[in-house]
Amino acid sequence: MRHLPLILFGLFAAATSVHAQQLAATCHASSSYDLTVQANSLLFDRPAPAPRRVLLEDGTLRVDGQAVALNDENQDRLSLFERNLRALVPRVKAVADQGVDVAVQAIRSEAGGLNLGADTRAELDRRLAADAADLKQRIAASQSTHDWHGTAANQYAQRLASDIVPLLAADLGQQALTAAMSGDLQGAAALRDRASNLANTWPARLQQRMQVLRPRIEALCPDIQRLASLQQGIRDDQGRSLDLLEVGH
């Protein structure tokens, strides 16, 4: 059942990654920075190009460690930008929470077509509930986009998959063994094909299921566009545009 890791790797991570993709596609919004929400400030950082580190705190601006003088208008704009962005964070997290629920339901639906034993189904439900609760807790506690991409996200997705893959693999393996020992080689082959087909068709079906999030994402777009407008044209002391958030058409 070597295809199962391909199916389950990142299922819960999809709740956040697909959500992020939809946010970018639906609102035409993107940023080259990561965002960390701190107690008294917002930190935008990226490896390149400069500016690499932008710190906003109550209308003040520091870029790559240097304070930037602002006129009253730009100071007010950045203060409003910071306040509005902080207000947007819990709404984005709420959509990600719903994405977790969608992913859990998707796994249960796919598992329903595998003819799993009653004990396996019960244990799967228990593990899904525990993993979903853990991911929702992580979403609630997270204050940085660094938590949801690259190595950190992949390691978390692998850990979640390792919690579920052995359970399903054992059940399907037993089904295949039972079929083979009874002489039903065709049935054993069908089980392998089912796992393979599931891996091949899963991404498209997950994307389709995630469309249920679209209305809630669309509701975020006006506020995201407002944020982009507030910071548009603000420059550092070297005349470089910050471009913390970019919105296309």
From TrEMBL:
<keyword id="KW-0732">Signal</keyword>
<protein>
    <recommendedName>
        <fullName>DUF2884 family protein</fullName>
    </recommendedName>
</protein>
<dbReference type="Pfam" id="PF11101">
    <property type="entry name" value="DUF2884"/>
</dbReference>
<dbReference type="InterPro" id="IPR021307">
    <property type="entry name" value="DUF2884"/>
</dbReference>
<feature type="signal peptide">
    <location>
        <begin position="1"/>
        <end position="20"/>
    </location>
</feature>
